[in-house]
Amino acid sequence: GTYNFSAGPGVLPNEVITKIKNDLAAEENSNYSILEISHRSPRFENIIKHAEAQLRDLMAIPDDYAVLFIQGGGSLQFEMLPLNFANQTGQVAVLDSGNFANKAAKAANAVGKKGVIVASSREEKYRYLPELPHDFQSSDYDYLHITTNNTIEGSTYHQSNLPKTNGHLVADMSSNILAEPYDVTKFSAIFAGAQKNLGPAGVTVAIVKKDWLAEQKIENVGPMMRYQTYVDKDSMYNTPPVFSIYALGLVLDWVKDQGGVDQMYVNNQKKAAKLYDYLDQSDFYQVPVQGTDRSITNVVFTTGDADLDKKISQDADVAGLHHLAGHRSVGGFRASLYNAQPMAAVDTLIDFLKKAAKEN
Ligand code: PLP
What are the binding positions for L-glutamate in this chain (predicted)? Predict the structure, then answer.
């Protein structure tokens, strides 16, 4: 078979793709399809309400958090968060654990706030997770921004090793939301672009603590950039990405059918452990990230030889193992093992890697 190891947009459950095809086929003979419906129609109202209810259920999101559907990707969240929440000190603390955290710090500066990197592993190529300095003063900042899963570098602040702060904690969960459990109440805001673990590209989920939002005095920020607009208008101030939200709802249904986040976590740990075990005992491949810092959704590795890595990922592509090359900024390999990735993909990959190790 062919397997898709893309870091995003990534693999979606076959059942979801089949359901979408069937829905579209059935609608061929009706007046119009999901792609053509009004976002004000009862059908879509049900879809968006259902998606919100499913996400609340799967993540145990309490009522005092708003669940919002926003366009613009994770990157827009890098700008919206400081615009909405960096209002007292004007400063955002960032744990610089990877390229996307780094971008979030720069985005805060770009919107006129201050993104302050309080700890970084950038000089060490993000091989490990930076920790909060002992003298970190949460009151110096409006919030602390972390990336739970560093998609490019393959490292994760799991629930058990989240940084401890007395202040507001904001998490970019773009690449591991619903892949492993997190206690939502530990965070004041969470966001995730859908295109890795939640659905197709085009919609980003934001989970925001209502009290925190209500405290904010925000000036000179337009309605599209304010979370409050999305709260007040049920994410329909303007036209939402109808198809993406419909598909997101189907993915959430699938996760629920599979047994929810706890079951996803069990499956994902098994998949990742199998691959890491193989890589660790091999003297041909190395994994730069060690121990509990390792990601279960993005497994990053290398032969140590950039040209060889490139050749092997090209061979992998020919063999039907697609998108194995690491991010263009780091090279090497990256096997993304999102919820919908079957164990068979890992088994096939390991067989391929063994063969490549022998032949090269
Ligand atoms: N944050 C993380 C952890 C990501 O992996 C990505 C994209 O890969 C982003 C943010 C940026 O998301 P988007 O491309 O939706 O703006």
Answer: 40
